[in-house]
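User: structure tokens for prephenate dehydrogenase, please.
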Amino acid sequence: MSLSPFNRVLIVGIGLIGSSLALALRKAGLARQIVALDHTPDHVAEALSLGLVDAAGDDPALADGADLVILCVPVGACGKVAAKLAPYLAPGVILTDVGSVKQAVVRDVAPVLPEGVQFIPGHPISGTEYSGPSAGFAELFEGRHCILTPTETADPAAVARLQAAWEAMGSLVTIMSAEHHDRVLAITSHLPHLIAYTIVGTATDLEEHMQQEVIKYSAGGFRDFTRIAASDPIMWRDVFLNNREAVLEMLGRLHEDLGLLARAIRIGDGATLEEKFTTTRAIRRGIIAAKQA
Ligand SMILES: NC(=O)c1ccc[n+]([C@@H]2O[C@H](COP(=O)([O-])OP(=O)(O)OC[C@H]3O[C@@H](n4cnc5c(N)ncnc54)[C@H](O)[C@@H]3O)[C@@H](O)[C@H]2O)c1
Ligand SMILES: O=C(O)C(=O)C[C@]1(C(=O)O)C=C[C@@H](O)C=C1
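Assistant: Done. Predicted tokens:
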């Protein structure tokens, strides 16, 4: 669809994702004016000095006149932030978010919004282990998936406009239910982060001389885990607290599978190990092939 720019976009939380959105929206010509609300004074100052936005502060009145509002705060903060903005949201405004969990955001945000606000939850499946306004870059969403989870009551025209905006920033948009999103992301994103946090924690909890060796030899697999385990602690605290059920379900399955592998190692069942590792190698190669296609 042809897309007219938004008049005033409010980005709430000008960290990694918020600043990347400010840059990507500008690059794609999607906003006449971009303003940011953030409760960290240093981030407000940084966003202004980097020229990411036209105005910034910690005043919910920044939402006045906005036709697109994007919540880019940790998922546990979305409800409180939406409640503060509510008095300034005009009917017809599109309010979306980028949170890594969707059902909890819908639960917390939907009830506090005034009638007429078009609430369309979203989640770009792209990020890094860095945080804050200086971590953002305009290309973050290019060639990456973005999931939207509108409810049945959402205005199809508003959903189409938001979808077109993400596509103009280079994303591949999929629409699904919030519940399905949370189960899929529990296994593809949340569990891998939990494993990374655990393995890095376990390794650094070893005896002193072993810790030195962990640092010295962390060139291969372990190093990849340390990158993921460097991700923002508040963001990930909120992800796990707000996608409890799905994460615990996937963790249960992981425990079962680990148990089977532990048994195969204990009884010297090489065939089981080889079969498992052959299957997972094929999965990795399939992912790479799909990316290149
Ligand atoms: N980092 C990723 O890889 C990634 C990817 C996709 C989606 N997300 C989601 O994007 C959201 C933001 O993540 P990020 O990586 O940009 O985090 P970030 O820490 O880089 O930025 C968050 C910003 O929100 C501000 N903030 C926090 N609470 C606030 C509040 N109550 N009021 C006003 N400002 C507040 C912080 O000061 C900070 O500037 C999260 O919901 C996260 O789940 C993150
Ligand atoms: O690339 C990374 O560093 C990420 O962890 C990005 C990642 C992911 O798990 O894929 C992390 C959280 C988001 O909600 C979406 C994307």
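User: Anything notable?

Assistant: Residues 227 and 262 are 26 Å apart (CA to CA).
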